[in-house]
Amino acid sequence: MDAFLAFFADIDWPEIWQATLDTLQMLGWSMFFTVLLGLPLGVLLFLTGKRQLLEQPIVYGLLSFLVNVLRSIPFIILLILMIPVTVWLIGTSLGVEGAIPPLVVGAAPFLARLVETALREVDRGIIEATQAMGASLWQIVTRTLLPEALPGLIAAATVTAIALVSYTAMAGVIGGGGLGDLAIRFGYQRFQTNVMVVTVVLLLILVQVLQMVGDRLVVKFSRR
Amino acid sequence: MIEFQNVQKTYLVSGRQVPALQSTSLRVEAGEVFGLIGHSGAGKSTMLRLINRLEAPSGGRIMVDGEDVTALDSAGLRAFRRRVGMIFQHFNLLSSKTVAANIAMPLELAGGHSRAEIKVRVDELLARVGLTDHARKYPAQLSGGQKQRVGIARALATRPKILLCDEATSALDPQTTGQVLQLLAEINRELGLTIVLITHEMDVIRRVCDRVAVLDAGTVVEQGTVADVFLHPKHATTRRFVFEAEHVDEGDLMSSYSHVEGRILRLTFRGEATYAPLLGRIARETGVDYSILGGRIDRIREEPYGQLTIALVGGDLDAALARFDAADVTVEVIR
Ligand SMILES: Nc1ncnc2c1ncn2[C@@H]1O[C@H](COP(=O)(O)OP(=O)(O)OP(=O)(O)O)[C@@H](O)[C@H]1O
Ligand SMILES: [Mg+2]
């Protein structure tokens, strides 16, 4: 027991607390903007797809290509490529704010694809019934497509949020702050294994909680 | 009421034009129950979906209440669709909404109704379809028959003048089918709703329709009142449907008559004549002997009918035929 406590003795807990808050902040904001961009993009992908309501092969092809390009760039490279854009957008590429643009650009296309897939699961007949009621396109999307796909959309958001957790850790590399940054600075550069262990455990807890909450919500909204 | 004027539809399937409906003209009168029957792929759904323009016609015009549906712009089309209810084989209810919310949906989409108004209307519809106790359930918790009742209530929410039914009973067992058909007949009678229903079962047509059109490979091959088409089918496709409904095979039937003596006739009685003791009386008075080879006494909607296949031997055959004629019995000489 003493050895156990001694192992953690020189940890700077306030710093860990601050890093945890930073990670949560990065996660919260980037998730917010990811949904804001990814959800409409996913809906648009779905609608312009083959045999769908707004079938537009060219638009679909372009969007699909853009999504594929962004998804094929390794996140660590994207972080570096995004630096000029981030600086132009918010004035700095450092800290919590600096991490958000690359996080969103990395995660939004990922979410958009998952949203597209979730919407494809909605029964065509139900969409048709809504059309037959005299619904507009906007009403079809908001009153039928999104509510009917809700469990799938929540699952998609959960997977995306968890992917974002590991992305935030990577963002630490370019000085994004948070638990990943801490792990690199103390755990890797100063050989403080204990800090590394604590950050990994905290990230693990975060992922577990996200998955659990996501699963609960999926069950709650599944009526089939 | 609903008028098809040289309407045709071709689908573009991987660059090729595939005809689904040949040039068709047809009228559905206000307040009637019109049946469309045909085998799978005959073009029934296509025809029905042309009415509320879920499919756009490739040619021709569709007039509803004097309005050219084919010429409507998107706002006009949405308003028009609110005046046409539709129910489906697989019900197509929103699984994420309760029964009450499903029924309320067309009203919410239409806008201009207060919450209180919607609630009153939904309660009224729930009572009409007998689901008052199920308002807060989700579709997954209902039986097929109950789901179709929700479908009907939803279709009626905006008080449409027309109800389109795409194989509304095909996914239901015989008893539930009967109940749903009864409900359709009831709303047709009480609300004066025009109903167009498609099916591949002659029995469905017999029970609820006033008139029927038979579709075969995208062409209307026969149409008329249900009694005429049902009792005296002319086209091969129609005959097949009728014999199917009676669970007999026309060919088998003829070969089983091969060693029956005398004249073989098919007598069709309609209305009052169905229950009159005609056969015995005519046999006695004309001295013919008869044997009954097959037959059925039933109803077409409310009208009773009987159709008997009999063999006549001896006596005065011509006098017997004249007597049947005088009693308004249709006689077809089979052999
Ligand atoms: N969206 C479509 N694209 C291409 N072909 C179609 C489409 N919808 C229908 N068809 C074709 O048109 C023809 C008529 O189809 P329709 O669905 O109207 O038949 P149906 O009489 O309703 O058959 P069922 O009893 O199987 O429902 C079929 O040959 C079908 O393959
Ligand atoms: Mg069909």
Automatic annotation (TrEMBL), chain A:
This is D-methionine ABC transporter. It holds the Pfam family BPD_transp_1. SUPFAM superfamilies: MetI-like (SSF161098). InterPro entries: AA_ABC_Transporter_Permease, MetI-like, MetI-like_sf. Residues 20-214 form the ABC transmembrane type-1 domain. It comes from Pseudomonas asuensis. Coiled coil: none annotated. CDD domains: TM_PBP2 (cd06261).
UniProtKB/TrEMBL annotation, chain B:
InterPro entries: AAA+_ATPase, ABC_transporter-like_ATP-bd, ABC_transporter-like_CS, ACT-like_dom_sf, MetN_ABC, MetN_ABC_transporter-like, NIL_domain, P-loop_NTPase. The keyword Ion transport does not apply. It comes from the Bacteria. It is a peripheral membrane protein. Pfam families: ABC_tran (PF00005), NIL (PF09383). GO terms for molecular function: ATP binding. SMART domains: AAA, NIL. The keyword Metal-binding does not apply. PROSITE patterns: ABC_TRANSPORTER_1, ABC_TRANSPORTER_2. It is found in: Cell inner membrane. Keywords: Amino-acid transport, ATP-binding, Cell inner membrane, Cell membrane, Membrane, Nucleotide-binding, Translocase, Transport. Residues 2-242 form the ABC transporter domain. This is Methionine import ATP-binding protein MetN 2. It comes from Pseudomonas asuensis. The gene is metN2.
